[in-house]
Structure formats: C-alpha cells, structure tokens
Amino acid sequence: MAALSAPAVLFTVGMIAFPVVYTVWLGFQTFSSTGKQSFAGLANYTKLISDTEFWHGLWVTIALFVLSLALQLVFGVWLALVLFHARRLSGIVRSLFISPFMMPPVVAGMMWLVILDPSLGAANYVLQSVGLPPSDWLASPTWVIPTVALIDSWQWTPYVALIVLGGLQSLPPSVYEAAQIDGASPLKTFQRITLPLLLPTIVTAAILRSVDLLRFFDIIYITTQGGPGNASNTLNIYGFRVGFEFFNIGYASALMLTLTAIVFGAVLAFNRLRGAVAW
Amino acid sequence: MTPRMLGTQFMLPLLAIAAIGPQAHAADFDWMKFKGKTVTFLANNNPVAQALLTYKADFEKLTGMTLKVDGYQEQQMRQRLVTVMNANSDEVDAFMTLPSREGEQFAASGWYADLTAMSKNEVAKDYAPAGLSQALLKAATFGGKLTSMPMNIEGPILYYRTDLFKKCGLDAPKTIKDVEAAAEKIKACDSAVTPFVSRGLKPAVAYTFSNVLHNIGGSYVVNGKSNLCSAKGKEALDTYSRLLRDYGPPGVVNYSFQQISALYRSGRAAMAFESSNELRTVMDGGARLKDTGLMPFPAGEGGQVPTTIGWGMAVSSHSKQPEAAWYFVQWATSPEVQKKMALQGIAPPRPAVANDSEYRKWIDEEPVRKEWQAALDVLATKGSSEVGYPIVANPESREFIGQAVQDLILKQKPVDQACADADKALDGLIAQK
C-alpha cells in the first residue's frame, strides 16, 4: 500500500516542499546586481528591520487587508441575506452576482482602470453629472487604498456571499420557528439567531479571503504598480519588484517568507476564532 | 625594423586582410548550415516583435530551422529571462533586450553571448553590419563586447495638435520654454483640452524625463556622484513636474504610454511627449492624421539631446547553439527584414533602409509620416541612449528618478528635498559594484 502511494507522496513533496526549502535557502543568500551569489546568513532578515519600504509595505498590506475584508464580510452577508430571501428570478440574480469573481483579476483591473481614469473614465463623468467634484481615484495617494479595496470588494464580495448563502441554507428552521412563536422581530432574529449561527461560516469566508488579501498583487500591479509614489506598494508588490526588477532574489525571498509567516499567522488566528465561535 | 617600417610592411597588410576577411567568409556563408535545428526566441510582445514574427515562415524556409517563439509582455519576458539565466538554462537561445535599461546589468551578469566575432565572420553577403546605427551598436557594446544587434530605433517625440495651435495663435514650440508658454496659452484658450501630457508613472518617467534633463544641460552623474541636486538637475525636475502638474491631466502619476496615446488620440490633449513607436496607435482610426505635427522635444539651454534607444536581439550565453541563434539574429536584423518591418511602421536602425525608395514612398503618403521620419533622423544623429543612470542597477535608478518627479507633481516635497532624497538613494546604487 505504501509503495502504491509513494509516487503521490513524492510528487507532493517535490511540488510543495522543494519550492519552500529552496526559497528558505535563497533567503540566506545575497545576490549582487550582476547575479553574483554569496552566503549572507541572517543579513536579509536584519535588513528588513531597517528597511522603511518594508514597514511601509506592511502597513499598506494591513490597511488593504482590514478595509477589504470588512467591506467584503459586511456586504457579503447582506448580499447573502438578499439572495436567500429572493423569490423571483433567483437563478438569474445569483448568476449575475457570481460573474465578478469569475472574471480574471487582470481583466477586472483593466476594466476599472478605464472606468476610474480621471480624464476619460465613466466614474468621474457620473460624479460630475450629479454635481459632485471629480476624484483622482487611483492617482491620489489618499484615495488609492480605499479605491483598490473597493475594486477588490466589487470582485470578491459575491464569493463571500455565496459561502454565507450556503451557511444560511444549512441553518435549522426549527430555531426560526421558535423565534417566530416568541414574537421576535426580524432585526432581533438576525442579531440573536442568524448572526451567531452564521459566525463559523463567516470566519471560514474570512480565512479564505485573508489568504488572498494578504498576498494582494494582481489588481495593484495592473492599476497602480504600487503608486502613486509608494502609496499602494504592498509587501507582495515590493517583493516582486525587488526580485524580478532589481534582481535581488535573496532579499525578495526573505520578504516573501516574512509575508508567508504573516499569512500563516492570520490563518491560525482565524482558525482559533473559528473554534471559539463553533456551535 | 623601424616602427614606421613595421607599420607599412607588417601592420598594413594585416589590416587589409582583416578588412576583406568578412567578404571571404560571406562567400562561404550558407543559410542552410543549421538546417533541422530549433532556435528558441524569447520575445517581448511589442510592435517590434509582432512585425518581425509576421515573417517567421520566411526564416524557417530560408534556413530549414524551426523557430520556437516564447512570447510575453515586457515585464513578464524579463522575469522569464531572469529565471532561465539564473538557472544557467539553455532553454532560450535568443532574446530581446533593451540595452539602455538592462544592458550593463545583463552584461555584468554574463548573460549575453559576445557577438563581436560572429557579426564579422559569420555573415551573409548582404548583411552589412556597418549599415546599422553606429550609436545603437555602441550602446549595445559593454566592456568591448557587442552584446546585441539593433532591431529598431525609437525615442520620445512631441506630438502636437496643429489645429489647436492655430486656433490659439501659437507657432510650433522651438524651446522648452515655448512648450510651457504654449501649454499656458492653450489652458486659457481651450479649457476642454489637456495642454500637455507625458509619462508620470514612476518606473516610466525616466524615459521622457531624461530627454528634458539632457536638453536643459543636466547630467545624471558627475564625478561618480548623483547629480539631480545640481542647478540643472533641479531645473529639469521642476520643469518636467510643473508641466505635468499644471498642464497635465488629472491622475497623470499613473500615466504611461497607453494612457497618453489614448488621451491624445481621443483629441483631448494638445501636446503629448511620448514614444515615436506610438505613431501607429495614435493615428489609429485616422482622427489625428491631419491635425498632428511631430518633432523631437524642443531644445533647452543644453541644446537638443533627444533620447534614442532601440530594442536589440541578443544570443544567450547559456545557449548550446549560439551560431544557429546568431543566424536568427542576423536574419532578424538584416536589411531585407528591417525594410519589411519599416513598412509596418517600425523605424529602421539602418540609415540605408530609411532612404530606400519603397520606404520613402510609404513615408511620403502622409505628411505626418514625413515629420515622424524627420524627427527620427534627428534622434539618430543627435540622440543619447542614457535613460536613467548608466550603472548596473539602472532599472532601480529609474525608480528614484520617478519618485522625485512624483513627489513634485503631488506636491509632497519641495524640489530641494525631492532631489536630495533621490541623490542619497542613487549614490547608494552608484556605490554598489
């Protein structure tokens, strides 16, 4: 039996363990601009501490993570409730809501780049036609993070909604019947029954989205490349540039391993939370 | 034997043999020498490669070789190259490269095969390597080694709306100050139009900014130190960022060639300082065909020093078949292929092709093409290929130039602070060996 499963085990180890071990090894090397390599010990990791761009990237990553996750959870739950109670054309409505996250992020990024163009885009046209001032959107250091969070939320809120909808459909009807007999209002029913019972599902959705949000890359790469200035330079974007544009593969590996540790930490924290809210 | 005798009796015959050497080799040249082999070409999916690969079947028919094309967008192509080269892999035989950007770095890393000997000894009769732009060949030579052959010639030029200039009572700008004065007048004359647009996206800024810096008389490095805080450097930073901040479109800090071409093509910009390669895109649809004038960026106190670069075709140092790869490079940069590409709007890096009757006929079909070619002629004769710092870490240096310009556009720092911060970071890069 062990012999039969050996190829699968070897394949898995090869595909998962090797890249990780290789990246760890790279993190202890230093590469000059000309690609010359030498052992650096912990130098890449100590460099992180004094690298202001790293701390800025971490801040941007966390800000995007918190803002996007909050938007997607709040609107995802709301959307799931709407879909759950929709009676007419529910199939069509659900298909329409799903469509954003079926779209490749690059396409979504390009589409929003055009819509949000301050000169030619439709967004400012709409704002101005209702008497509001135009915005620089992705070109404003102040607004770039909220704007990117909005784009990501447009794309991924339906995904959260689908997960929550699954959770809603699995809730026991008897609890709602009891609440109805007791005369609970819809708001109280939501606060005291739906939300607590849905929490494990919501935390699961949060875990799934957290992994993506902490590794935020594609939308930013397409729309701002980390700019304006370094206002949207997430850790992932920073690591990519250090590695593939400046060819400092060793430092980029250290950056990416640090990001991986942050992602693992977040997942572990959410898993603990999930255990605490399970019923 | 006196030195003079040594020169006349010994050296001169040697030089004569060297001079006729290529012809002797050319006579033996056989395009079918590597028949049956497969050459892998790592291509950037830009208009240059697209035009070239239209004739892929011709190459395969001529040589009996198979051309395997591995095509990506520019940045992804570099990522692929870095991965392949760091692994010392022979997966790629020939690749496209931008010597002005990565030349120093790739040469120092040993990624380019030395083409010096092959370009002299292993050439077809009609290849004429001396007919290629000498400036571009020089820009592709590092440490005495020729690392790539020029595929095209390009550089930023000024596209301007002749109808708007006429409407606002303006003549074509002759100096940088004229550009700013024209922008100011157009802003007052037609508020629906963006007076001036150019690159504001951080990594893209150096391409256009370098032209302004050089025209103003500035330089990136003096005595081994970054020079942005010199009077000329500050003036260039101030002028470029002021043009974009006061007369550019909102959100210009995210503008690169796509946005600039789209804005100008749609008729919403009066002046666009953008690559000569964008002519086809800008003229797409024909709306700008009759109301556009073209010229190199007007002179400053330092004269007119346009930025002139070109994509090159290199052979990988890890290729197991560099000679076969060289045959592909030679075919791709031959006068015949470059003439065909020129008729698709790819500016030829060979003056002879630019003077070819069929190409001239194509140029003469539209006045805007004539101005385009005239601008390219200036680029070919006066151009500098210095885009960003002439150091191994050139791509990284462009980040700091772009940062300084963005700091000024967004009014996040005064010019003294922006240039000082950039100089500090750039001195660190220069110090890296």
From TrEMBL, chain B:
UniProt superkingdom: Bacteria
Coiled coil residues, start to end: none
Annotated InterPro entries: Bact_solute-bd_prot1, SBP
One protein family per Pfam: SBP_bac_1
Compartment(s): Periplasm
GO cellular component, one term: periplasmic space
Keywords in alphabetical order: Cell membrane, Lipoprotein, Membrane, Palmitate, Periplasm, Signal
Signal peptide: 1-26
Family: Belongs to the bacterial solute-binding protein 1 family.
Record-given protein name: ABC transporter substrate-binding protein
Species name: Bradyrhizobium manausense
